[in-house]
Design a protein that fits this description.
Elements (H helix, E strand, L loop, with lengths): L18 H13 L6 H5 L6 E7 L2 H6 L2 H10 L2 E7 L4 H9 L4 E5 L16 H12 L4 E6 L8 H13 L2 E5 L2 H10 L5 E3 L7 H10 L3 E4 L7 E4 L2 E4 L1 H9 L4 E2 L13 H12 L4 H24 L1
Parallel strand pairs: 1-2, 2-3, 3-4, 4-5, 5-6, 6-7, 7-10
Antiparallel strand pairs: 8-9
Helix pairs in contact: 4-5, 6-7, 9-10
């Protein structure tokens, strides 16, 4: 989870329900063949969604088998999904189940408990090198690193590995850590998780400085107001999206197992506020940016 989260998260429909109740509700919907997007299906085709921020960690696959997780993604209308997990086994399980849908991203974490320790654990490097030698990925991440910790040897090696493999970095960081990673490799491609939980003004400043920086909007709702009548984009974020239409992506962030049952809700919510943008901008953020940056390269490499 975003341990430095500063903004409200996207709507979660039963915020005060227990995790168990949400899991059971989601499983019942899936088993019953409920299509939350039936109304959309009766009109124009739903806007495809490229979800740039999903996790399928050990506690998720133990409760939600791969076939059911993939079914949820397809029901949500996802065109692609960037998936990482703790450990990497979850990502590989989903990739086998849906190679047309899943884009694998390699997390440094072997267990959830390594989120705060990985930057000072040299065994992480051997783990990453072994997985990279065995499997293909579109990136390394999502990993958490802040400030001067980005200059520690383990993180420096992660930046080097991404350069050697010509893959991206998915960095959950403050702006300082992002700057430090770019100083290590000015040609790095960094997807800034949650847009750093930073203000739209600061995000725009970072995007102006770094042409190879992109942002996912996972776990944020400050950029949009959505109600029963539709969606509106907040004015400062609208300026950011219009200035940099090719630099943003949406994401759900399934940091706990029950959030898998918000994937469809998040996709619907995203379509509502994206509809308030010019069509070409909305489509770019919804799926074209992710497909161009990650999907096309993955398709080419698979041939």
């Amino acid at each position: 989870m975003a341990d430095r989260q500063q903004h409200a998260v996207a709507p979660q429909g039963g915020h005060h329900d227990s995790a168990r109740r949400r899991l059971l509700l989601g499983a019942a919907c899936l088993a019953g063949g409920v299509r939350a997007g039936v109304a959309e299906a009766q009109g124009p085709p739903a806007l495809p969604i490229f979800d740039a921020h999903l996790h399928y960690s050990h506690d998720a696959w133990e409760r939600l088998p791969p076939k059911e997780a993939v079914a949820l993604m397809r029901q949500a209308g996802l065109k692609r999904a960037m998936v990482s997990s703790s450990s990497d086994e979850g990502t590989q399980k989903l990739l086998v189940e849906a190679p047309d849908l899943v884009l694998p991203v390699l997390r440094p974490y072997r267990t959830r408990g390594e989120i705060g320790t990985w930057v000072r654990d040299p065994t992480v490097v051997a783990h990453l090198e072994a997985r990279l030698a065995r499997f293909r990925y579109v990136g390394i991440g999502e990993y958490h690193v802040y400030g001067e910790d980005a200059d520690l040897p383990v993180v420096r090696r992660v930046v080097q590995l991404a350069r050697e493999r010509r893959i991206a970095l998915h960095s959950h960081s403050d702006a300082d850590a992002v700057e430090r990673q770019f100083r290590q490799d000015p040609s790095a491609r960094i997807l800034w998780a949650h847009a750093g939980f930073d203000s739209p003004a600061n995000v725009r400043a970072m995007l102006r400085r770094h042409r190879n920086l992109w942002c996912d909007l996972a776990l944020r709702s400050d950029h949009a107001l959505v109600d029963a009548t539709g969606g509106k984009v907040e004015s400062a974020w609208r300026e950011a999206f219009l200035e940099f239409p090719d630099r943003f992506m949406v994401g759900t962030d399934t940091f706990t197992p029950e959030r898998w049952f918000y994937v469809g809700e998040h996709a619907r919510w995203s379509r509502q506020w994206l509809a308030d943008l010019p069509r070409e901008v909305g489509e770019a953020i919804a799926w074209r940016n992710g497909e161009r940056l990650f999907g096309e390269a993955w398709n080419t490499a698979r041939r």
